[in-house]
Design a protein that fits this description.
Distance between the termini: 35 Å
Number of strands: 4
Order of helices and strands: EEHEHEH
CATH architecture: 3-Layer(aba) Sandwich
Largest sheet: 4 strands, mixed
Strand order of the largest sheet: 1-2-3-4
CATH class: Alpha Beta
Shape: globular
Radius of gyration: 14 Å
Number of helices: 3
């Protein structure tokens, strides 16, 4: 069974950081980044972090540019787990994996 999108947004007091996760079998589109940015604005958070086991499309990176949003893709997640938690993990795509489709541009 393919993973379904899983988004969790929280705001912490003090540092006010909103975090979201997006488990996806394809590229995470710009809509997830926009959703996180809306949460940042609604919660008064100073930074947002979006983590996925997959990757992000170009429009996602363009939208996040010059905003207090950090996008962590699968490769960076594996690095962080190894470097900071000593966990050697791997991400295995589902059997029905398809190459990501192009993300829409913001033009």
């Amino acid at each position: 069974m393919a993973p379904t999108p899983n988004r969790l947004a929280t705001a912490q007091t003090g540092g006010h950081t909103s975090a979201a996760t997006a488990a996806a079998e394809n590229t995470v589109g710009v809509s997830a980044v926009r959703d996180l940015f809306g949460t940042l604005q609604n919660e008064g958070a100073s930074k947002g972090i979006l983590v996925t086991t997959s990757g992000y499309g170009q429009a996602s990176y363009e939208f996040a540019q010059n905003k207090p949003i950090e996008l962590i893709d699968g490769a960076n997640l594996l690095y962080l787990l190894s470097e900071h938690a000593g966990i050697e993990a791997k991400i295995t795509p589902p059997d029905d994996w398809k190459d990501p489709t192009a993300d829409t541009r913001l033009d």
